[in-house]
Amino acid sequence: VYQSQTTLVSKLEALQCHFTWDLDTSRSKLFRCRERFEDFFTEDGHSWLGHIYNLRGFMEYKLGFTEEAQSFFNKSTEAFCQIRNADEGPWLVVNYGNLAWLHHHLGDPAESEAYLTKVDALMNEYQYPSQDELHPEIYAEKAWTFIRFSTDKMLLAADYFQRAIRMQLVMVEWHTYHVKGLMFASKHSSTGLGADILEKMRIAKEQDPENLYFAVHYLEHCAKKGEIIKDEACKLAREVLRNPISSYSGIKPLLRVYRNYVSVDEAIDLAEEVLKNHPDERYLMKCAALCYKWKIFFSDSPQKQSMVDRAISLHEEVISLYPHSSLGKKIDLANIYSKSTNGKVKAKQIYQELLKSDLDQAGKQMLYNNYAKYLNFQGQDRTSSLRYHMKAAEIPQQSIFREKSIKVLKNIRDKGKDRMCREIQTFLENLQEP
Ligand SMILES: *[C@@H]1O[C@H](CO)[C@@H](O)[C@H](O)[C@H]1NC(C)=O
Q1: Residue 109 pLDDT > 60, yes or no?
Q2: Quick one: residue 379, left, alpha or beta (phi over 0 = left, psi -120 to 50 = alpha)?
Q3: Which of 276, 295, 314 is at the close of a domain?
Q4: 245 domain residue, yes or no
Q5: Beta carbon of 66 within 6 Å of any ligand 1 atom
Q6: pLDDT tens, position by position, 256-303
Q7: Rounded Cα gap, residues 198 and 204, in angstroms
Q8: 70, 106, 115: which to mutate for ligand 1, most atoms within 8 A of CB?
Q9: Cα separation of 197 and 60, whole Å?
Q10: Ligand 1 pocket check: which of 67, 73, 74, 78 to mutate, most ligand atoms within 8 Å of Cβ?
């Protein structure tokens, strides 16, 4: 005899799992994230594989692909068993919770109940002394999920990792992720990284020396503090090159370190070298495209045609390989065209198409800010440029693009010379905070 529907639902709602964590799941975001996750390295034994599959299963479910969802949740179960080297344990609470929800949605109450019973059994066996604390495994998975999927919950994630670590000291990867959460959370703060976070990073790096991604980030922060890091960067490059390639391997932050503290030309050389070893990896194409963009955007002298051609062909390829998450690359491509001698018409055409396309709020904001800059850079239409900055600022969503547009508008207002000055002043006064 199954429990009544309402008891079942209230039990499901009390679970700790992706279905109850209040994750923002707009379709465009899901499609974008899915493409990002496809680039994750999934070799057996990767310490976050169980978490990755759980999140991917949840995203598939939200997109309406229940078969794929089931298959990812199954893979998550397997991955956890393999990584923790045990058939069952508290690390499966979230996974079983997801499966209980999935079967509930598939109209299979018996199967849903079976998973609820498994969760209950685990909770009883691995009970935590304090009623209001979660098991550290659950804190860790929740925190990891927020860091990967909900950038607005970074501080909460850092707090969860802190709790998980306090309760269970042995999981080295948790330390690195905890520090990572703190890093992300303080990325946009005006004071930058405090000495305490840098010290935590240093310790985490020593405890988890295999984690190149983290080593690269640490190096970057040392460089920011004024240390000379070129030799160390080259050493890391050799290590990153030896490892299998994925977005976890640290290649992208390493290229950024090269650009900032070695040279953009050497960043391009490194990207091309990695790409030569893995010519079909779309993720590496994306990294290489980024390096060419830096080269073209941030140098004053005109570029060789061969450089521009390579930049364009890489961008076109990346755009076709990431159909759901290439808005930024399309904008970059338009800007590359606009900077090249014969590309003005093409640039205009790309922008016109993007303005007509169906974008979510965040996408529109990014586009409007960039289009405003493009109009101003072309020197043609200053009024339209300011109008697009206003359109970007108006969208009630906090982002770097919004901030940049507001900054431009405030500058115009403060200088007081433009004929739109008064209008902009009123606009800024009436602007709602998101
Ligand atoms: C997932 O695992 C269950 C139970 O082991 C099995 O019955 C089911 O066919 C699997 N589903 C998929 C899609 O892999």
Answers
A1: yes
A2: left
A3: 295
A4: yes
A5: no
A6: 999 999 999 999 999 999 899 889 889 999 999 999 999 999 887 778
A7: 10
A8: 70
A9: 36
A10: 74
Residue with the nearest Cα to atom 12 of ligand 1?
A: 71
| pLDDT, mean over the chain | 87
Whether 71 is in the pocket of ligand 1, judged by its Cβ within 6 Å, is yes
- Which pLDDT score is estimated for 82? 87
Q: Where are the alpha helices (DSSP H) in 194-343?
A: 195-207, 212-224, 230-242, 251-261, 264-277, 282-297, 305-321, 327-339
Phi-psi map region of 107: left, alpha, beta (phi>0 left; psi -120 to 50 alpha): left
Is 248 among the domain residues?
A: yes
Does residue 432 sit within a domain? yes
Residue 102 lies in a domain: no
- The pTM score is 0.81
The candidate with the shortest Cα–Cα distance to 25, out of 13, 33, 14, is 33
Residue 384: domain span: 361-434
Task: Dump pLDDT digits (tens) for 363-422.
Answer: 999 999 999 999 998 767 889 999 999 999 999 988 899 999 999 999 999 998 888 999
| Tens of pLDDT, residues 345-369 | 999 999 999 999 999 999 999 999 9
Q: Give the end of a domain, one of 238, 263, 295.
A: 295
CB 350 within 8 Å of CB 334: yes
The answer to whether 8 touches 112, Cβ cutoff 8 Å, is: yes
Q: Is the predicted pLDDT of residue 190 greater than 50, yes or no?
A: no
Structurally, how many domains does the chain consist of? 2
